[in-house]
Write a structure and sequence with these properties.
Distance between the termini of chain A: 54 Å
Radius of gyration of chain A: 25 Å
Number of domains of chain A: 2
CATH architecture of the largest domain in chain A: 3 Solenoid
Number of strands of chain A: 39
Low-confidence stretches of chain A: none
Helix content of chain A: 10-25%
Structural class of chain A: alpha/beta
Mean pLDDT of chain A: 95
Number of helices of chain A: 5
CATH superfamily of the largest domain in chain A: Hexapeptide repeat proteins
Oligomer: homotrimer
Strand order of the largest sheet of chain A: 10-13-16-19-24-27-30-33-36-38-39
């Protein structure tokens, strides 16, 4: 199933070791020394593979599976034959993520700088980092330990990057301070001039953009995103926040911690977003707004006012989500109430 | 008209040869040996140029044109003087595409690898392929015959590409199997990790993305698109499908054959799209949906439910297109019915 | 405040010189020889810094500021103590832009071509231009004087670029004629084939795209935008127009002068946009439309018809802006008028 051309597999690991890593218990403790070599869907799993059972739709496949062990909850395990080896966990999806990362970690870095990378002599590259072909690293750049800088990536003058970061191929970064364990995918533009102009007798005059981009620890940023630097203060993306592909983050935006922002969403200038906010795909959030922590914004909404903490909104303009759904229904009913002649 | 700095012109070709290529007939068969050197708008065409007449708006220009021959239907030809040389075709737009490609084919490849390209010794490059400056090709990559890999493009470990493909400058591709005659424009990100996370006590934990991207024959992908690889299965783009610029295709999406997806549209994770589906610009299609074959989705719609085969929808949330138009009208009428005082 | 790692500071300048540059007057002409070294927010400003006062919210901070001089209007200066040194201007925001550019100009170019840049021997590079590492410049390209071509940027065969332009890292340009003082950010795709196909018995056949992209003087284009070349005529972006990140400009679009187009907006094929048009973020403008000069389009609108000069529209489909606001209100009232049982 998993194409070994593209993925690096680790292991094997004993069932006991896997159980420990996911804080689980084995139905048959005697099996703790059996070795698991891979993960697989239940219907494909062989006698040395682990399978996840997290949804009753897959009950039959799991019941018939030849897997070395099935990872599931006590409750779901009731649906399986007694002889099936179970690794009991409280949250199968979480366990699935943990086990996948165990068997398929990121490929180990090759701690070297490709001969075709162009590193300014004043740049500092941490121990164990891998710099791929054609990457360009400017003066006074600092790259931490165990980072991977992809092919053709460009780190402009003065950029700092923490430890264990991955910067995708052809991504360009300027005017930025980046934490540790940050993963930025390919084709991303970070640190460009924010979009600010002032009318003048000779046309639109650029407002200087003299701030930075600050990306905190454990952030992920998707492919082909654009994150502009601040005009005087900084543009900030808080720790643990995950951003999908093709997202726009304008100048002076502050995004809190552990937010999730789906593809093609955009946040306009100087807006502040709290912690654990969830923003759907293609959402537009207007400028100079405040979005409270744990707010949720439905896909494709257009947010034109502040959103209170914990509120869920949808629509264009965005309103509380129930109101939006009622609007949708009311509009359909409006058509039905019209006399036939008008239709 | 056509700037020869940028385009490679082929020919000349005899009228007879052109007629054969477009399955057309000449009004004056004696002219079959006359040589056509170029294509031009009717009002600019000289005595060795061909012009297309596909719209009655251009009747006057075509009637007065000095073109060697006018390519048009029998019906439209009735509007032209008898002495005008006609190349009769059933579909002038199709003939226009065929004739344009005949006179202006893609520039012939220079079958060489630029000295500054970085090719891993284990990569295999097919005969006649051109690899431009700064391209980076990783281990075990296979590139077919007569491909063009643009400047600074990055093909990561294990990627396979068929024959006669064009990969644009600075495009990055990983975890992908690509067919023949595929054209991918510049700045595209293909094969990145899909956007999947699971909550954990220490924040959002990444779900491993262990699938691939499969791009079938004759697909085109526009500039700065992002196509993520699958989580376990693959993300698939079916043969003949054409995708415009800045489009997002999320993990595990399956797109059928001969679909047309306009600029800035986005398809969320695990959605399945049939064959010959047409998706307008800035459309959002939600996750885990099924869009039937030959469905049409109006520009900027937000699709939140399955769409049946052949259905045409529009709006946000998207509804059958006539209903959407009626909603629009009803909303305007609602305003007019309100007492003046309320306005 | 301003991180000197990332920004090049010029100066110091005498107050008299600054006043002359912004066409302002000093409240205390005797201070004309005092030297200003930097700009700073009023609460942070030291005795050699200038501060801007453009909004009464900052009255207290400005009144207590240690700044060498406060730049403001005669009217706002009434709110400050008499002893405060004032540089009177009519438009503080304009003065702010002018003073910022004075103290923080773009870093001076290093007039050299990096050894790793790949320049075709037939390309012509103007005096004083800087070409960064890994840039690829094709045959018969012309780059004017004092240009900055970023790392990994790709200028394809025949492209012409005027004087004093900045082309961002990894941006790719083909089939384009670019004026002077044009600034294109990173990751932009310019000159790709427009999205045009015609059905044929063997699938969708590409319409040849034989036009160019013409970008006039003083244009700015944001990160990761895509601008396609014309099919026969050209795609044109008029002088002074400013385009934000991730914007799509399709083939044969004509954009006038001094327009402002915000992030993630898209303009479909063959649409003509007048001068000084303002287009909000995530707006979609349909194909073959005409948008009159000085029209304004609210963020996230979907424009499906022509817009008259000077008109302001919003919504999806876009209607005159007041009508859109009334629709929004009417829809909410509709819910309130429904009998409770229905809610």
């Amino acid at each position: 199933m998993i194409d070994r051309r593209f993925f690096y597999r680790s292991g094997p690991f004993s069932l006991g070791y896997v159980a420990e890593r996911v804080s689980g218990q084995l139905s048959h403790p005697a099996a703790a020394d059996a070795m698991a070599h891979d993960i697989a869907a239940p219907e494909c799993a062989g006698r040395s593979d682990l399978s996840i059972f997290s949804d009753t739709r897959y009950q039959d496949a799991c019941a018939r599976s030849s897997a070395l062990a099935v990872v599931t909850t006590h409750q779901l395990a009731e649906l399986l034959p007694d002889e099936q080896n179970i690794l009991f966990v409280s949250q199968p999806r979480l366990a699935s993520a943990q086990i996948s990362q165990l068997f398929y970690p990121h490929a180990p870095l090759e701690a070297h700088i490709h001969a075709s990378a162009k590193i300014d002599p004043t740049a500092m590259i941490g121990a164990g980092s891998q710099i791929d072909g054609g990457a360009v690293i400017g003066g006074n750049v600092t790259v931490g330990a165990r980072c991977h800088i992809g092919a053709g990536a460009v780190l402009d003058h003065g950029v700092t990057i923490g430890d264990d970061c991955c910067i995708g191929a052809t991504t360009t970064i300027s005017h930025a301070k980046i934490g540790s364990r940050v993963r930025i995918k390919t084709g991303v533009s970070i640190g460009g001039e924010g979009f600010g102009f002032v009318p003048s007798p000779t046309g639109l005059l650029r407002m200087s953009q003299l701030g930075c981009v600050v990306i905190e620890d454990d952030v992920e940023i998707g492919g082909n995103c654009a994150v502009d630097r601040g005009s005087l203060g900084d543009t900030v993306i808080g720790s643990g926040t995950k951003i999908d592909n093709l997202v726009q983050v304008a100048h002076n935006v502050h995004i809190g911690k552990n937010c999730v922002i789906a593809g093609q969403a955009g946040v306009a200038g100087s807006t502040t977003i709290g912690d654990e906010v969830m923003i759907g795909g293609q959402v537009a959030v207007g400028d100079h707004l405040t979005i409270g922590s744990r707010a949720k914004i439905a896909g494709k909404s257009g947010v034109m006012r502040d959103i209170a903490a914990g509120e869920t909104v949808g629509g264009y303009p965005a309103v509380p989500i129930r109101l939006w759904h009622r609007q949708t229904v009311a509009l359909l009913q409006l058509l039905n109430r019209k006399p036939k002649a008008e239709r």
